[in-house]
Amino acid sequence: MHDYHPLQSYQFEEQEFSVWLSSIKGAAFIAQEQKQLALLMPKAFGHYSIFLGLNAALSSHLESSIKNAIALTANVAFEGQVIMDPHQLPVANEAIDLVVLQHVLDMSDNPHQVLREAARVINSGGRLVITGFNPYSLWGLLRHFRFKRGVPWRANFLAQHRLQDWLRLLNFGDFDIKPVYDCSPAKWKTKPWLNCFANPLGAGYVLSAVKQETRVHLLKTHWRNRMMKPNFGLTASTRQSRQHIPKQSLESN
């Protein structure tokens, strides 16, 4: 009997998702997602960035001020520069300025561990970008009532507010969320007032968060607490009685 490992499930899901991306609907969705990623890349600064998950090899070539980009993949068949396990990244602590997770949380059986690993390798002030499927979209509704099966309907579909709560616990803030549409009607693009309905119902999203700098604050004692105050009990009375004993009596003893 073989022991279960989350990497095995992730590799299978990533392979299935790659097949879906070659479909008409998958290609349309990922093309719009790439546009949102391209808009976020100029906000990242530093020396090193890593891209994980679907389309990592292509996303690593997006224009950015970070010149050293590495595409990580869990499958040998994909065009990744390094084969890795997203649950155990082969990267040192606080060594990366930008981490992009493209549907990695959607495909993982343990998304908490993936987030912990991403938070571990990002330095203070670094940026984390996550793409995912929106559970409150039409796709999420179809998934909820099980009208659709297979990929991508069996993905995790993590809610944006839930993901933000997880990231706050890992000391992330400064959130920026962009919707990703799928085959949006042409009239939505020509009538901006319809975006207020389209944005929350987008099939997917691109979420960006910045790792906050951890500072140590030294607590200083208030000046009133520095003054010696008489305490109640036997210790206080003993201290006061010893202070009022005349010096001559001490010498005589």
If you had to describe this structure to a student in words, what would you say it looks like?
About 6% of the residues have low confidence. The protein is 39% helix and 20% strand. A seven-stranded mixed β-sheet has the order 3-2-1-4-5-7-6, with helices on both faces. The chain has twelve helices and seven strands. The chain is α/β, with parallel strands linked by helices and 253 residues long. It has a single domain, classed as Vaccinia Virus protein VP39 (Rossmann fold).
The chain-level mean pLDDT equals: 81
Number of helices: 12
- CATH top-level class: Alpha Beta
Global shape: globular
Q: Note the main sheet.
A: 7 strands, mixed
Given the helix and strand composition, which structural class is it? alpha/beta
Number of strands: 7
Kindly estimate the percentage of residues that lie in beta strands according to DSSP: 15-25%
How far apart, in Å, are the first and last alpha carbons? 84 Å
Q: H/E order of the elements? A: HHEHEEEHHEHHEHHEHHH
How much helical structure, as a percent, in the residues?
25-40%
As for the CATH topology, it is Rossmann fold
Strand order of the largest sheet: 3-2-1-4-5-7-6
Rg calc: 28 Å
Total count of domains: 1
CATH superfamily: Vaccinia Virus protein VP39
CATH-level-2 architecture: 3-Layer(aba) Sandwich
pLDDT below 50 for ≥5 consecutive residues: which ranges? 232-245
